[in-house]
Request: fold
Amino acid sequence: MSSSWYIIGLGSPHGDDQVGWKAVELLRGRCRGGDAVWAAKTPLDVVDRLDPSCHAVVIDACQTGTPPGTICRWTWPTDPISGTRSFSSHGLAIGEVLQLAATLGRAPRSVVVFGVEIESCQPGEGLSGAVARSLPRLVELIEHEEADSLVNSKSAGEEHARCREQDSKNSRPLAKPQAASN
Reply:
C-alpha cells in the first residue's frame, strides 16, 4: 500500500461549509513531507490534482440528519457517496467527481471521505460551536488514517517521491453514514 496521501478540504467561506478548509489549515505542517494538503472550492477542482499512485482524504461539510458536528467516514468506491446532500453550488458532488476521476484514469488507490454534519452555512458566519468543537477529533482521525498507511507500506520513500512530484506537476453524504468513533 502507498503511504502518500492527498488531503483535500472542500468548502466555501459560508458558515459550517468552511470545515474542510479549517481542517486542512490545522493539518498543514502536521503531515509527513510526502503528503500534499490543500483546500478547494468545488469537488471538480480536485480532479486534475489526483494521482492514481496515491491515497486521498477528502473533508467536506455534509447533511445526513445527524446532530451538528457529527463526523462521518466513508470509503470510495465501497460506500455509496452519491446519496448524501452536497452543499456545492457547482452541480457535482464528490462521489460524481471521483467517478469522473476513475473514468479519466486519475482516481487514487483509495479515497476516504470525512463529512462533518453542518448546522448553518449562511454567508458571513463562522463555524458553529458544534462544528468547531469537532475539528480536533477530525484531525486526529485523519492523522490515524495516515499512520495506518505507514504501518502497511513497504516502499514509503519511493511512493512519497512519486506523489510529491506528481503534485508539483499538477499545481494548478451518503446512503448510510458510519459515525466515526469518539
